[in-house]
Amino acid sequence: MKKITILDLIFILIFASSPLACTWDKTDKALFSAFSATMAIDCMQTNYIFSSDKFYERNPIIKSGVKGTGTGFIPFYFGGCVLGSWYISNKLKSRNRKILLSALILLETIVIIDNNSKGIGLNFKF
């Protein structure tokens, strides 16, 4: 069975947003694509954490998932978060969807910058 690579995950998250969001305007789709991209970066940073002895993961869900199944759990966790965010966003009116997606992008960007400032890089291999 073929393993899902991080590149596969990125394509799934970014390009699936357009067909799934058929009633969304261009701004909604762009925000969801940007959110998906930030989640993919966070996913690669999380994988880097588990491939290094210098860092530790603070998210208890990811820690227990990796402990039980290995690092292959990481892209599925982040993919599930993106799909859950899409589901919730799809239930909102366009104005509220823009607010939610903008807030999620901001939150993920802060996490990425913080991780980067600590020396956490990107690991593409799961």
Pick out its properties.
126 residues, mainly alpha, 73% helix, elongated
Shape: elongated
Proportion in β-strands: under 5%
Give the domain tally.
Answer: 1
User: Which value, in Å, is the CA radius of gyration?
Assistant: 15 Å
Q: Which structural class do the helices and strands define?
A: mainly alpha
Biggest β-sheet strands, sense, barrel: none
Low-confidence stretches: none
Mean of residue pLDDT values = 85
Q: What's the total count of β strands?
A: 0
Q: In whole angstroms, how far apart are the ends? A: 14 Å
In N-to-C order, the SSE pattern is: HHHHHH
Helix and strand topology:
Layout (H helix, E strand, L loop, with lengths): L5 H10 L1 H4 L5 H25 L9 H10 L3 H19 L2 H24 L9
Helix pairs in contact: 1-3, 3-5, 3-6, 5-6
